Known about the structure:
Elements: H1 8-28, H2 34-43, H3 51-58, H4 62-74, E1 78-82, E2 90-94, H5 96-116, H6 122-140, H7 142-148
Antiparallel strand pairs: 1-2
Amino acid sequence: MQADSSSPQEAQILAAIIDVLHALKARTGERENPATVFLLRHLRGTTPMRISDLAEASRLDISTVSRHVKALTEAGHVARVEDPVDRRACLVGITDAGVDLYDRAMSVRAEALSAAVADWPGADRTHLLDLVRRLATSLTHPAETRSTA
């Protein structure tokens, strides 16, 4: 087991992020499984892909992605198509209904977030965006942020 190298400040940041996500869910009355929107985000604007590629892109276990893709397919948000390169395999792609669901979910969240920061000065909103993007980059590409810091 590794020693915990996080500080109380990192724990507070993580707790604040969880609080933000929970508050957004409560404010929007979100009914979709968060994994639904998360996976649709990875399929939105891309060509159909193998489930293994979707699992890798989303950094989820393939069995988890397979289970969610099955539910998304049954709901009509994702369609399976034959892989033209390997006819034994199939690809999954977002359907028009999936695009609509994703766009609605993001719009509702954006409206809730907009209302929450409506009285913030523009500079504060810009600073928040910069910090959140920087954090996302640090988490997804740690070497890039270390070399530019």
